[in-house]
Amino acid sequence: MFRSKPLLKNFTWLSASQGANFLIPLIIYPYLLRIIGIEEFGLVAFAQAVVTYFIHFVDYGFSISAVREVSLNRNTPDKISEIFGKLYFTKIVLLLASFLVFYLLVIIIPEWSNYSLLFLTSFSIVIGQMLLPIWFFQGIEKMASVALMNIISKTLFTIFIFLFINGSSDFIWINFYFGASQVLVGLTAIWVILIKYQIKIIYPSSSLIIDQLKVNKSIFLSVFSTFVAGNSNLLILGFIADPISTGYYAIVEKILLAIRAPAVLLYQTIFPTVCLLAEKSFDQLITFLKSIVRLCLISFIPLAIIVYIFSDNIVQLFSGEHLEHSSNLLKIVSLIPLFAALSLPATQTMLAYNFKSSYANITVGGAVFNITLNIILVSIFSAYGSAVAALTTELFLTLMLFLNLRLFHREHSVFGVFKLSR
After folding, report:
1. What is the domain count for the chain?
2. Same domain as 254, residue 164
3. What is d(CA 69, CA 289) in angstroms, rounded to the nearest whole number?
4. 123 and 251 together in one domain
5. Residue 298 and residue 174 in one domain
6. Alpha-carbon distance 46 to 234, whole Å?
7. For residue 419, what is the DSSP state?
8. How far apart are CA 247 and CA 46, in angstroms?
9. Which residues of the chain have a pLDDT value below 70?
10. Within-domain flag for 77
11. pLDDT of residue 392
12. What stretches pass through the bilayer (predicted)?
């Protein structure tokens, strides 16, 4: 029914990639916290949180729509060349607009202008993410290339940190080196694609770029809202609370990124297959998604228990010191990876069947829910409010995705994936 060997191969490569995402912080974060301190670490993380909004704006939902297009047209080189050209030139337009807005914000907001060099150099991360052709390799199911790009960029970043970050005042360059490593890898990967896959650069017309912005609007709103729903916590905390509280939560967010990684790599691995099965038969898709849910339950429930019990040890492993506040925050968010994994069947079914409007409504609602909850809880409980808001929002989104399919797309309801008997 579906190709298990390619899936296993892709999952293995992405696991190696996420292994790098886990190991590199273990090397870097204790060093950075010792060199620059928790307050400056909080500022660096806050700047990263800000530019991540622009990363998602420049991406404009292409990380989903382009994967789907490439997956369905992988055997048509001319079509792939067309996709390649219109995507990158549209992204360049969005990048220029983003930098203009970002520059104005840095000048206008006093708290940002005081650290203008930190914020402006952090924009290199936006450029790096724009260049990385992850969407292309996902679409043709060459996850080894995705993994290699990530491993090489993380390795370069680590080298830059140990070479150039030697004192507390160097914290303003950390994000620049992060972005620079991605730029180098992204440019190299694009060059390889053009040569190896014989992709021609097709310059799109201005009308085609405008058309791309219109066509992708719903997906962009969905993806951007999903990001806001799950990642506004650090930004809101940075505005309302002090840098030290932001630093404590930033450490937990970095750890959460690592322990949530298996759900992300599972998403990346199975999405092309989900798209192909959705074209063939919904029954085949449900059977496949049942196997994914089984995998999620036997993997993520033990993971949540381990993270909760050993939160003190995990924080100390990542930070190099005992931080009680960060340990308590990690306990609160320990269930988030489980909820994220269990939302995959509903999320990918919606995307595979192009239910753009429904998905956008849910994600926008989730974003509003998260921001509102954060503002209320952070004002009262500081970083602990952020942790509770993050957990509650993840649960809210998961429930809404399944309920929306049941109520408005009943023929594609995926509640059946929880009937695990064969």
Report:
1. 2
2. no
3. 21
4. no
5. no
6. 7
7. -
8. 9
9. 1-7, 11, 14, 230, 420-422
10. yes
11. 95
12. 12-32, 44-67, 88-109, 115-137, 144-165, 171-197, 218-241, 261-279, 291-309, 329-347, 359-381, 387-405
